[in-house]
Every structure is written in C-alpha cells, then in structure tokens.
Amino acid sequence: MDWLAFLSFTFVAVITPGPNNILSMANSNKFGYKKTIPFLLGVTVGFGFLVLFSGLFNKVLFEIMPKIRVVIGIIGFIYMLYLAYVLLKSSNHSNEKEEVLSSASFKTGVIMQYINPKAILFSITVTGNFIVPAYDSVFMLVIMSIFLGVVAYFGTSAWALMGSILKMFLSKYEKVFNVIMSLLLVYTAISILSSVFH
C-alpha cells in the first residue's frame, strides 16, 4: 500500500470541513467539549463500522469480479480530482447550515455516519483503493477500520477543541489551505490510478 497517498487522503478527509467536523464544533460551542465526547465516540464507532462494512463489500466485489478494481480505481481517481476542484473553489462562507444542530449524543454520532455522504464516499474509496487491494485478510480490514475510527475521533475532536481557532485560521489563510489540500488530493488521485494499472 502507498502509505503516503493513504495518509494524505485520510488527513484531507479528516481535517477539511464536513458534517462531522461542523457538528462537533457546533456541539462543543453549545454544550462544551466534555458533553460533546459521547458524540465524538459515536462518530468513532459509527465510522469504524462504516469502513468495515465498505471493506467487506469491496472484498466480496474484488473476489467475484477481479476487474472491478480497475473500475473502482478510476472512480476513486475521478472522485479525488472532483474533491480537489471543489476544495480549490470552496469558501469558508459556505451555504451549509451550521445552525442545524443535533444533540451531542453517542447515538447521533453513530447514525450521522450513515447519512453523511463525505463519510460514505471516503469509506468506499479508502477501502476499495487502499485497504482491500493491499491486504487479503479480514483481520487487517478490522485493524484498519479501528485505526480509521480513531483517526476520525482525533479529527472531530480537534474541531471540537479548537473550532474557533481553526475557523479564524481558515478564514485568514483559506486560499493557501485549500490549494495545499487540493494538491494532496491530486497526488492521491494519481497514486490510485498508477496502482490500479501496475
């Protein structure tokens, strides 16, 4: 597995704004960090299982139709380039309604993963392009799912802890941040495509 591409993609997915991060920041602002911990743990568990289910699905697909790896690789490549483009063009003054809050509960954190397009697309892409092609065991898939769940915890926790600082930083250096994140995604997209055809 290309660990640099894998970790770059994971870092970009975890650090950039999305429903989990925005809701963590909003819940923390509203209820305090301590009362937001159940939500963060729910994100961790929900996301870990989402990655596991996506990995099992991709593993079965790869075994039934080995050629599907090329299709998933091309879709992953296109998706990464699309994300890079959207990120490059995005603004922190997005139309996302940050005010729409749910409670900071564990249950909300878990359920959120299965209605969160960013988490679903990440899970399918990361398992189909990195984990399943590199490891042929369910045990490693479980280990990687736990690892990504923990990474998700730290990402959402960082937004909850430093929401206001991050928000100020991103609005001050928004363009530079977006360019760097977009370049990381382009690098990851190229790595995915090259691994598919080798």
Automatic annotation (TrEMBL):
Location(s), subcellular: Cell membrane
Keywords: Cell membrane, Membrane, Transmembrane, Transmembrane helix
Its membrane topology: Multi-pass membrane protein
Transmembrane regions listed in the UniProt entry: 36-58, 70-88, 138-164, 176-197
Domain of life: Bacteria
Keyword Plastid listed: no
KW Transmembrane helix (keyword) present: yes
Pfam families documented for this protein: LysE (PF01810)
Protein name: LysE family translocator
Organism from which the protein derives: Marinitoga aeolica
